[in-house]
Amino acid sequence: MTLPVMEPGLDRGRIREWCRRVDAGPFSSLAFGERIAFDNPELLTTMAACAAWTERVRLTMTVVVGTLHDPVLLAKQLATIDVLSGGRLVVGVGIGGREEDYRAVSRDLAHRRMDALADSVASWRGVWSGERVVDGAASPTGPSPARPGGPPILAGALGPRAARHAAAWADGLCGFSWGPSVDEVAAGFEGFRKAWSDAGRDGEPVLSTGFWYALGPGAREQLTGHLRRYLNWLDPAEVESLLPGTGFAGSAEQLRALLDALEGTGCQEAMLVPTSADPDEVDRAAAALG
Q: What is the CATH class of 12-289?
């Protein structure tokens, strides 16, 4: 279950209530991602609060835009959240799809590349393993993550070229489907498996995806209202053309059928992205899942 961090009206009490209900429910992860030039809470600060307000669920970043950040400082922040959560952090990472986020933090767009992201990930793992990041430093840059080697790193790689890059360094895929389309997800997973094999990786990659959803009467209207706010970096005419076919809006039975179909593609975890900040959304989804 994704926190509704892109919805208006969030405050301390509401975020904490979402954490409580997600942690109590049947969900495997509490997830959310990063935007800068938007009216939403900051990812790392909020995830640290979620670490304190939960005990059970994994805390999954979907995704942190790694190339927006100084890699050593981000490695320290991620390790701290992993410690605070008792080793429950999973880091989904990408280069981001919005140039205004780079401009907002005065980050050169030249950093928005998959090879730059790979360099950042290598820096994180070096910090987590205890490498000295400054010549002559008296100690490593801690804290050490709760798990040896640090938290799992999943690539938010949505295209074949990005998948080929990420398969060399990621532990798996943290995808997203606008449809959602089972065929699209299956093709993306198959492409990542091939890239993983071509990179000489052992074992199997983690495969996950996500999608916007709304349930029951008024579902399409709820989803449409959310997308009109969230997709504000796109041309309004383009947004209107996307609305009828974007996201899941349907019944509990249809949601279960979709998740069954995704499981058939090899999907190990599906991230539900809510389109309302009402905490009862958590209970409705839990009831729909049975």
A: alpha beta
What distances in angstroms separate CA 65 from CA 61, 97, 98, one per listed residue? 10, 9, 10
**Separation between Cα atoms, residue 229 and residue 208, nearest integer Å:** 25
Q: d(Cα 13, Cα 159) in Å, to the nearest integer?
A: 38
pTM, two decimal places: 0.96
pLDDT digits (tens, 9 = 90+) for 75-127: 999 999 999 999 999 999 999 989 999 999 999 999 999 999 999 999 999 99
User: Under 8 Å CB-to-CB from 97, ≥6 apart: which residues?
Assistant: none
